[in-house]
Specification:
There is one protein chain. 27% of the residues lie in helices and 32% in strands. The protein is α/β, with parallel strands linked by helices and 283 residues long. The chain folds into three domains: 114 residues, D-Maltodextrin-Binding Protein, domain 2 (3-Layer(aba) Sandwich), CATH 3.40.190; 88 residues, Periplasmic binding protein-like II (D-Maltodextrin-Binding Protein, domain 2), CATH 3.40.190.10; 67 residues, Alpha-Beta Plaits (2-Layer Sandwich). Strands 2-3-1-4-11-5 form a six-stranded mixed β-sheet. A five-stranded mixed β-sheet has the order 8-7-9-6-10. The radius of gyration is 25 Å and the shape is flat. The mean pLDDT is 95. Bound molecules: phosphoribosyl ATP and zinc ion. The site of phosphoribosyl ATP (PRT) has 21 residues, from helix 3, strand 9 and helix 5.
């Protein structure tokens, strides 16, 4: 049985439990429980604050965890990063008041920088031989320059609107982050088999996200042209229609391309374009 640590509440909680459910792993609904066992997969879930997940996994109290890569990098506990999960995407950046001219990372020499991620920032400046004063604060980092606590900040940025609201400009991106599946180093073979099953299910779920299934009828003499518009993952699925001279093509396409591809297919004489949601893509 594997134990996986998930964030108990916060930005990654819902997306982590959604991923498990979409991978066919049922979870008990009672959110007040700290530990809950899946009824249909050899796994129990331990709900923790995200700050505690890397250490809990590193020392083997949990075998696995889902946490922001930023937390893994900050805490520095030895863990295996098994898989990037493509949600919780953000970046960690340096920002300064927008009216100040920025000359490059040397700007920060001798400056005070407020952050909740002192470890990552310290490494960044040491690699560049820049010495500055890192002020560790737990929250509301972005107001530090306006109250005179710091000359700049180092924080998580997603849309960038928090920086703009606080009169700050992003000047250096230090790292990208997303949620990752981490594991205790050196898990036994029996547990690793379950981890591999889990990762392959996660891969299937992630692959099908943002994808649609398209069925389209095309005149036979337009098949070649149509296949250039909707290249398939492997060999295309081509089925003859009862109506002679016509065929149906089935293909998996990116959701964002649906309208563009449908318009182009219609222009070459395609008809009856059907777009379906895709639940899983198991390869
Ligand atoms: O209670 P617990 O300790 O478990 O949670 P927490 O409050 O420490 O973390 P939480 O839930 O806020 O975030 C969990 C993880 O989500 C982070 O470690 C990141 O990996 C990831 N993530 C993704 C983010 C953001 N996007 C994000 N935008 N974490 C925080 N923010 C905050 C950021 O701190 C800043 O205040 O949002 C603001 C910036 O957002 P924009 O869109 O205005 O740029
Ligand atoms: Zn936290």
């Amino acid at each position: 049985m594997l134990r996986i640590a998930l964030q108990s509440k916060g930005r990654l909680n819902e997306k982590s439990t959604d991923l498990l459910r979409e991978a066919g792993i049922s979870l008990e609904e009672n959110s007040r429980r700290l530990l809950s066992r899946s009824p249909n997969f050899p796994m129990e879930v331990l709900y923790l604050r995200d700050d505690d997940i890397p250490q809990t996994v590193s020392c083997g109290i949990a075998d696995l965890g889902i946490v922001g890569f930023n937390e893994v990098a900050e805490r520095g506990y030895p863990v295996e990063v098994f898989q990037h999960l493509e949600f919780g995407k953000c970046r960690l950046s340096l920002a300064i008041p927008k009216y100040i001219e920025y000359s490059g990372p040397e700007f920060f020499e001798g400056k005070r920088i407020a952050t909740s991620y002192p470890g990552i920032l310290d490494r960044y400046f040491k690699e560049r031989n820049i010495s500055c004063e890192i002020r560790e604060i737990a929250g509301s980092v972005e107001i530090s320059p306006s109250i005179g606590l710091a000359d700049g900040i180092f924080d998580i940025v997603s849309s960038g609107s928090t920086l703009v609201q606080n009169g700050l400009a992003e000047v250096e991106k230090v790292m990208d982050s997303d949620a990752v599946l981490i594991g205790t180093p050196g898990l036994c073979e029996e547990k690793m088999q379950t981890v591999r099953t889990l990762m392959s299910r996660f891969t299937s779920v992630l692959r099908s996200r943002g994808k649609k299934y398209m069925l389209v009828n095309v005149p036979n003499d337009k098949i070649e042209e149509a296949l250039k518009i909707i290249p398939s993952m492997k060999s295309p699925t081509l089925l003859p229609l009862a109506d002679k001279g016509w065929s149906a093509i089935h293909a998996v396409i990116d959701e964002e391309d649906v309208w563009d591809k449908a318009d182009r297919l219609k222009q070459i004489g395609a008809e009856d374009i059907l777009i379906l949601s895709m639940e899983k893509l198991i390869i």
